[in-house]
UniProtKB/TrEMBL annotation:
Cofactor section: Mg(2+)
Residue ranges of domain Protein kinase in the record: 1-231
Keyword Coiled coil found: no
Keyword match Transferase: yes
Gene name of the encoded protein: Bma-pmk-1
SMART domains referenced in this protein's UniProt entry, alphabetically: S_TKc
UniProt similarity note: Belongs to the protein kinase superfamily. CMGC Ser/Thr protein kinase family. MAP kinase subfamily.
GO molecular-function term, one example from the UniProt record: ATP binding
Lineage: Eukaryota, Metazoa, Ecdysozoa, Nematoda, Chromadorea
Pfam families associated with the record: Pkinase (PF00069)
Name of the protein this chain belongs to: mitogen-activated protein kinase
């Protein structure tokens, strides 16, 4: 994936001598100064910084989602930032295509969308938008919004903030067990986000409320979120690229040996392309010759 807000792959190599013996693959990426998790431990961020960081996360997500992918594990430690506040999304180990059947145990629990824990088998890209809301809340307060101790505690903490769901939401839960559990919870109203985030601006509050909507059908897409007034100073439709759809369906039934062969060939192709780039004259060298 080629995007300013997604970590670059500068090189890929293996110490193994052929596809049959392939065991280890190493990826080389750009060195970033820190991740959001480490930054949040040592300093509070200004509202301008928060706007810029949230915008960049959404800009990267727009590209990821346009490829037909869901990241599924957005969290502060998977977001790298350099000294210029430039941001890159890391770690696609849990990423899946949008039409794949999903498992419930994905994403770090504290940033996990409620529909994942409620066993929705075909959830959508808005699970990533929920994670953005959790990260944004943490950027504002310096504290994790939903630090659940376990699966049940996580759901309880979420309901205590966003309120227990209505029948429309309950009807979308496919698991009878999960639906009955939620239905039997004490009715809790949605908390006043102005009191929950007293230092946040009205626009920041509104974006938080939209991204942290319990019902995924009512959360904004990454593109829609970037159009929000809170991010207006950075939003530029002409500079928010999308990706061609990624088609990997045909690879789903490969054997391990076939996967090894594919990976081996990709490593070779990447090395060949990299050698060509390094050998090609730069614009300045071409002008001087």
């Amino acid at each position: 994936m080629n995007h300013e807000n997604i970590i670059d792959m500068l090189d890929v190599f293996t110490p193994d001598i052929n596809a049959t013996s392939l065991q280890d693959v190493y990826f080389v990426s750009m060195l970033m100064g820190a991740d959001l998790s480490s930054i949040l431990k040592i300093q509070r961020l200004s509202d301008d910084h928060i706007q810029f960081l949230v915008y960049q996360i959404l800009r990267g997500l727009k590209y990821i989602h346009s490829a037909g992918l869901i990241h599924r594990d957005l969290k502060p430690s998977n977001i790298a930032v350099n000294e210029d506040c430039e941001l890159k999304i890391l770690d696609f180990g849990l990423a899946r295509q949008t039409d794949s059947e999903m498992t419930g145990y994905v994403a770090t629990r504290w940033y996990r969308a409620p529909e994942i824990m409620l066993n929705w088998m075909h959830y959508t890209q808005t699970v990533d938008i929920w994670s953005v809301g959790c990260i944004m809340a943490e950027l504002i307060t310096g504290r994790t919004l939903f630090p659940g101790a376990d699966h049940i505690d996580q759901l309880t903490r979420i309901m205590n903030v966003v309120g227990t769901p209505n029948e429309e939401f309950l009807s979308k839960i496919q698991s009878d067990e999960a639906r009955n559990y939620i239905r039997n919870l004490p009715k809790t109203p949605r908390k006043d986000f102005k009191r929950l985030f007293p230092s946040a601006s009205p626009d920041a509050i509104d974006l938080l409320e939209r991204t942290l909507n319990l019902d995924p059908d009512y959360r904004p897409t990454a593109s829609e979120a970037m159009e929000h007034p809170y991010l207006k100073q950075y939003h530029d439709p002409s500079d928010e690229p999308v990706s061609p759809p990624l088609d990997i369906d045909s690879d789903g039934d490969l054997t391990i040996d076939q996967w090894k062969e594919l990976i081996w060939n990709e490593i070779g192709d990447f090395a060949e392309e990299r050698a060509k780039r390094l050998a090609a004259p730069t614009a300045n060298n071409g002008a001087m010759s």
